[in-house]
């Protein structure tokens, strides 16, 4: 193959890029309007009751059951909206995630290119399952993302329509899913969160020289949004990248997340999940830099994952 052929092929299939690089989404229709911003609250007044999975001040979540719980993996590669570019790495990323959570002794369930109704139906169905025999729930969602400029509300895309990102976890809060109350719910989201540019900052360093068990019943109250961790691929307002370099064959965030979770499953003693996710963030931020056309504003951009957590305890799988 000639050098010209190689060059043309490289232009057609850049090694790195924003996950989707979509344009023209500002005018898309939002079918739900206000309902999308505030999901209906069907919870009656009063305080529901659920069985405690751990003592109120316990430092760790119990992680003794096998399987530990469901790991739902949603990957989207094709979209009805023509402004949304295909995501050819979706199946590869889904397989990485499946292998990682299988190694952690979760029970993976993989779903490809679900419509909005099918996605919402699956989330609702899982929330209604009996989770009394589980220690945790994990959800990995991979698709395009979008931010509503008026109020910075975030959306992710199913095959045919978008949903507010919070719909991914709204069914699993303590008052809606009693079987998971007090148990960790882990959400990992691979999707762009905006178009901002991050060129990074050069850093230099000067080197100089070389609890007692009882038979009593404990009761305590937790907030309805406790015990959740949401980890996005990128900081709010910034894109998430894909790459075909340095052993990465898809989403940068999913690559480092799956790699570290698999290694975590093989380590002994196992560190806490929080330390592993810190390592994922560090490796994405330090080891990756985009390599696109030098004239592209996203050339030599950095990426850092973003975590929002209401977990009350450490997690050791």
Detailed description of the structure:
With 317 residues, this protein is of the alpha/beta class. The protein has a domain at 66-196 and 222-310: Rossmann fold (3-Layer(aba) Sandwich). The chain contains six helices and twelve strands. The chain has helices at 3-12, 34-37, 90-103, 116-127, 252-266, 273-287; strands at 16-18, 70-75, 107-112, 137-142, 145-148, 153-157, 162-164, 185-190, 228-232, 241-243, 250-251, 306-309. The chain has a six-stranded mixed beta sheet, with helices on one face. Strands 1-10-11 form a three-stranded antiparallel beta sheet. A three-stranded antiparallel beta sheet has the order 5-6-7, with no helix packed on it. Strand 2 (70-75), helix 3 and strand 3 form a beta-alpha-beta unit. GO terms for molecular function: cysteine-type endopeptidase activity. Residues 1-47 are annotated as: Disordered. InterPro entries: Caspase-like_dom_sf (IPR029030), Caspase_cys_AS (IPR033139), Pept_C14 (IPR002398), Pept_C14_caspase (IPR011600), Pept_C14_p10 (IPR002138), Pept_C14_p20 (IPR001309), Pept_C14A (IPR015917). Residues 67-196 form the Caspase family p20 domain.
């Amino acid at each position: 193959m000639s050098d010209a052929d190689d060059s043309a092929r490289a232009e057609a299939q850049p090694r790195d890029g924003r996950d989707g690089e979509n344009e023209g989404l500002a005018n898309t229709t939002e079918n739900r309007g206000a309902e999308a911003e505030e999901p209906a609250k069907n919870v009656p007044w009063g305080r529901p009751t659920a069985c405690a999975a751990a003592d109120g001040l316990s430092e760790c979540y119990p992680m003794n059951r096998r399987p530990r719980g469901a790991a739902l993996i949603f990957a989207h590669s094709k979209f009805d909206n023509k402004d949304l570019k295909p995501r050819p790495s979706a199946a590869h990323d889904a397989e990485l995630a499946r292998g990682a959570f299988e190694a952690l002794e979760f029970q993976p369930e993989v779903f490809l290119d679900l419509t909005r109704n099918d996605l919402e139906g699956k989330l609702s169905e899982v929330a209604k399952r009996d989770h009394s025999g589980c220690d945790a729930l994990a959800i990995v969602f991979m698709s395009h993302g979008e931010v509503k400029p008026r109020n910075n509300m975030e959306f992710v895309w199913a095959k045919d329509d978008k949903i507010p990102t919070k719909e991914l976890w709204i069914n699993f809060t303590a008052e809606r899913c009693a079987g998971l109350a007090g148990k960790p719910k882990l959400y990992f989201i691979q999707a762009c969160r905006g178009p901002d540019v991050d060129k990074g900052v050069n850093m230099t360093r000067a080197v100089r020289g070389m609890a007692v068990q009882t038979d009593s019943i404990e009761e305590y109250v937790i907030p309805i949004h406790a015990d959740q961790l949401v980890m996005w691929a990128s900081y709010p307002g910034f894109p998430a990248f894909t790459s075909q370099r340095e052993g990465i064959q898809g989403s940068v965030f999913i690559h480092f997340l799956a790699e570290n979770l698999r290694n975590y499953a093989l380590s002994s003693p196992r560190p806490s999940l929080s330390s592993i996710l810190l390592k994922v963030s560090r490796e994405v931020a330090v080891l990756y830099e985009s390599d696109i056309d030098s004239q592209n504003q996203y050339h030599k951009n950095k990426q850092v994952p973003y975590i929002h957590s209401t977990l009350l305890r450490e997690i050791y799988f």
